[in-house]
Amino acid sequence: MLRLKIVTRLLPLFITFALLSFSCSKNNSSKIYKQTQAQLESQLNKPDLSNETQFGIINQIARNMLAAKDYNSLILFLTSWVEKHEDDPYNAYWLLMTANAYLETDASPVASYYFERIIRNYPDLIVQNKSVHFLSLQQLIQISTEPANRIKYFNQLISQFPNDVSITEMYYRLALEYEKEGEWAQAIRTYTLFANRDDAPTIQLSDVPNAYQTAKQLIDFNNSSKDWTFETIDDLTSAIKKAIANYDYRKLDSYKSKVNFFSMSWQQDENADNAQSSFSMRAYMRGNKIRFEKNIDDSISSPTEAYLRTWGWHSFVNVWYLYFRKVNFPADPEIHGRWEWAGIYYGEKL
Question: pTM for the complete prediction?
Fold first, then answer.
C-alpha cells in the first residue's frame, strides 16, 4: 500500500498556494486565479519532474480549483490526467477528488461510479494517514440507497478496516441492510454477531434507540418455539377470556409471550429493565373476582395492536389492560402476521 508521506514534506508549498487561493477567492480576482493556475501548469509541463514534485503541483492545482469552487474544471483536469497517465501511482487519489467534486455538484450517481472505480481498479493509497479505499467506502455508504450495495460496503469495511471502525456498530447496520433486502438468515446471524460483542449492551447509536434490546428480541424470538401465537385476534382474545372465566392460570401463563413479555404502567418504556416480566398469573387470580370487557377497546386499538380492559386483579391496581399485537417476523412466513399476548398495562388508560 502506497503512503503519501510526501504530503507532509510539501506542507509549506501547499500552505503558500492555499493562502494565495484564499486571497483570490476573497477578492474575487479571477485574473490572479488564472495566473496562478497557469504558472502551476507550466511547472507541471517541465520534463524530469520527480514524483514528489509532480504530485505537489497537481494537488495544488486541484486544491485551487476546489477553493474557487471551479468543479467542472477540476473534474476535467483530473480525469484527463488519469486517462493520459495510467501509470501514475496516485490516480486513486485524483479520482477521489473527482468523486468528491461530483458530490459538491449534487451528482451522487456519478460520484458513486468513481468511488466504486477506485475500490475496484486501484490499489489502496494512504493520504495524510487516511486510506483512499476507506474514505470511498464511507462515502458510498452515505450516498447509496440500495441495501444490496450497502451490504457489500459494510462487509468491506468490516473485513478490510476492522481497526478503523466500530465493528459492533458495523454489525448492527449490516444486519439492518440484510433485513431490508429480505435476507433474514443473514440478518439474524449478523444481529447475533452484534449482540455477542462486549460493548453491544452499552452502545449508543443516535439514530437507532435501544439497538441492543431490539436485536436481542429478534434473536430470542427466532430461537423460541413461538407456540403461544394465535392465527387471529379473535382466536387469541377468546382463549384469554375463557381462561379468565375458568380461573385457569396455567392456560393464561401458556398464552403469554415467552419472549420479552412486559408488565408496566402506561408511562413506562417497554424496554426498561423493570418492565420485563416472567411472573405466573396464579398469584393474582386466587381469591379475586376477575372480569373483562366483552370487546377489545377500539379507541386505542389498531389493525396491529389490541387492548382488552380487565379488572379485579389486585386491590392496589385493580384495572389491567391486556396488550396484544400482530407478530412482525417476516423471517418465518408461517408466524408472521399471527397474534401474541405481549404484555400488560396497569391502571386506566391515559
Answer: 0.82
